[in-house]
Structures are given as C-alpha cells and as structure tokens.
Amino acid sequence: MIVRAGILYDGTLEPPKQNVDVVIDDGRVKEIRAAGGECDRQAACVTPGLVNAHAHLEGSGEPDMMAMIETTTPNQRLLRAVENARKSVKAGITTIRDVGSSNAIAQDVRDAIEEGRVPGPRMRAAGNVLCMTGGHGWPIGRAVDSPWEARKAVREQMKAGADCIKLIATGGVMTKGAVPGNAQLQPDELEAAIFEAHRHGLRCAAHAIGTEGIKNALRAGIDSIEHGTMLDDEAIELFKQRNVYLVPTLSAPTCILAHIEEGGMPKYVKDKARNVNEIMLTNIRKAYDAGVRIAGGSDAGTPYNYHENYAMEVELMWSLLGMTPQQALHAATAVAAALIGLHRGLVAIGEPADLLLLDRDAGKDVRSLQDPQLVLKSGVIQ
C-alpha cells in the first residue's frame, strides 16, 4: 500500500514533511519518499496512530464506574471491554495500556486482539491494581498490606498474564472514602512491588494524586506517575532526576465537571473532582514547563470519559497545558509509546504502519484528530 500525505507528522518534533508517499509492506513502513506516481490512499494530513497510556476498557464512561463493577458480571464487563477496544481502534487509537481491570479481562481482550479474533489496539494490560486493604480501586484490586504481600501480588498478576503493574500510592476520586491527598501503599510496599516487577521486566505505573504518595512512588523507582495532581517542586526534581513519565489524564476531571449537573454520579465523586481540578491545571503546567516528560493517557472508562474520544486528551494538552498541536501529538504518540514499550510510535522505516489519515493539518488544528478519514493498524484498515 502507498499512502500519500500532503503533510506528514512522523511523531517526532521535527518539522513535518510535505507531499510524501509512505510505502507499506508486510504491515510496516518500508519507505518514505517524495510523492509521485500512483497511490492507494491519500489525505491532506497523515500522523502516527494514537497511543493511550491510561485506560480501563471494562468501563464505558458510566456515571458511577465502581457501582457498575460491583453490579455486573465478569462476562458482561468482558463484552463491554471488547466493544470499547473496537471503538478505540476505530477512533485512531492503535496502541493502549489498560491500567487496571477485574478478572483478567484486559489480558483476555489483549490476547484475543493479538490472535485476530476481535478488533482493537495492540495492548499492555496490568490486571488487578495493587492497593491497600479498602484502598482506592479495591473493586478491581488485589489488597496488599506488607512488602512480601506486594511481591506475591506482582507474581500473581504475572501468572494471570499481566505485562505491566499498577500500584495505588494515594487515594482517588472514584472510590468512596478514599481521600485523594492521602498516601496509601507505603514506601516499603511500593519498593518491594516495583523491585519484583522490574526483576521480571515489567514496567510499573502508580496512581498518585497526593504529594506524599507521588514522592513515595518516585523514590521507590516507579516508571510513570498517573495523574500527579498535587506534585510539588521537590516532586518535579525527582521526576527529572529519575526520568519518570507523568500521565496527567486531563480528561478525567474535565469530563466529570462537564457533566456535574447530570444525575448518576455520586456526590463524593463530584466534590473530589472539583477539589482537584484547579490545582491539577496549575501543577501539571508547572511540571511541563520544567521539562517533565508528559505522556498521553485519558483514563478512559471513567465518568463520561469515552474510549472513542481520546482525541480530546490531545486537545486538552494543547488548550490547558500550552503545548503546541505538534507537541501534544508527540505526547500522544512517540512519548506514550516509549512509556508503554511496544514500539516507537513513529511513522518511520521499520515501524508498524499505524497511520491516521486526516482531512486537515493536525499541526494547525489538533481537533482534526477527532474524526480520522481512515485508520491503519499494521497496514490494515480498521
């Protein structure tokens, strides 16, 4: 297949290429050359497929995600996860990381996608989150209350097919009684889990909103901080010293607040979202301006935060953090891909031919990502 691009953003921050052909062979990019001759597809703009580094496929944007998990069967949630995987890839997400699911649902969906039985992005799957007893995310969690339990929990997730690990370092918005600013898993528990995961080649993400928990996870050797809402100057220095990714999930509180007057969301969810939103914007902007690596991830599956709307996260990185459209695209392709570790997230020779064909220049209007004309994953039309 030959795809002709009026303008090509390759996922880097280099100036885009004009009027080029992307030659695809056996699912990978074989050549990028000056446009000429016949082509199979053409578009005003071509970008890499999007990479969502933070999602929960069994959630579908229900107003009360935790209640949904408690009142549905694993089979029902598996079917929803399959549907959300299909919606994701149709919307241009060609790679995704599910950072917490019940009943090994994410692992099963990942395997079904790899075997070609259902459509969806290529995946990483964390399985159960590791939390303290009664901690944030417990409906999809494995409780750990000591360093050795943390080690065992990592081994259990590996046995269940997990290829990354999610740790709960602080309270959160979605769980009743979990105060976002409070630390939960303690430093020795985090260190034990991360050591065990790294020993087996698995990367670790930490749900971390509160200041103490963020720094606990950073000092323990975490690979990425999810949310990072209450980070401070010391945390920013730790991010930079240890080269840790920050996945701010701007869509999560934004979607809750946009639907704050609608029924269905528990009052505690609304109240906590209000409390974290303003400080989130101030602190994440500060971290970005200081040079912390920002990777795209939307927390899709949380209230009104739909899997097919990941393009909104890219738009929010532009409108709220002050990134240029190209920088936001870079965060949601190459940077997020580097965090996940499946490929480089680039349109480059030898890389998987994951392409979005757009009707206008994404570097001038990042909102063009909302409705791709065509999505290719490994050279196959989705």
Description:
By secondary structure, the protein is α/β, with parallel strands linked by helices. It has 2 domains: 2-48 and 345-381, Urease, subunit C, domain 1; 50-309, TIM Barrel. Helix content is 36%, strand content 22%. It has a 7-stranded mixed sheet with strand order 3-2-1-4-15-16-17, with no helix packed on it. A 5-stranded parallel sheet has the order 10-11-12-13-14, with helices on both faces. Strands 5-6-7 form a 3-stranded parallel sheet. A hairpin with a 2-residue loop joins strand 2 and strand 3 (28-34). The protein starts with a strand and ends with a strand. The model has no long low-confidence stretch (mean pLDDT 97).
What is the mean pLDDT?
Answer: 97
Task: Describe the main β-sheet briefly.
Answer: 7 strands, mixed
Q: Pairing-aware structural class of the strands and helices?
A: alpha/beta
Query: How far apart, in Å, are the first and last alpha carbons?
Result: 14 Å
Q: Examine the coordinates and then state which fold CATH places here, giving the name of the CATH topology of the largest domain.
A: TIM Barrel
Under the CATH scheme, which class of the largest domain? Answer: Alpha Beta
The helicity comes to 25-40%
CATH superfamily of the largest domain: Metal-dependent hydrolases
Q: Which sequence of strands runs across the widest sheet?
A: 3-2-1-4-15-16-17
How many separate domains make up the residues?
A: 2
Q: What is the 3D shape?
A: globular
How much is the radius of gyration in Å?
A: 20 Å
Strand content: 15-25%
| Element pattern in H and E | EEEEEHHEHEEEHEHEHEHEHHEHHEEE
Any low-confidence stretches, pLDDT <50, length ≥5?
none
CATH architecture of the largest domain: Alpha-Beta Barrel
Provide a count of the helices.
11
Number of strands: 17
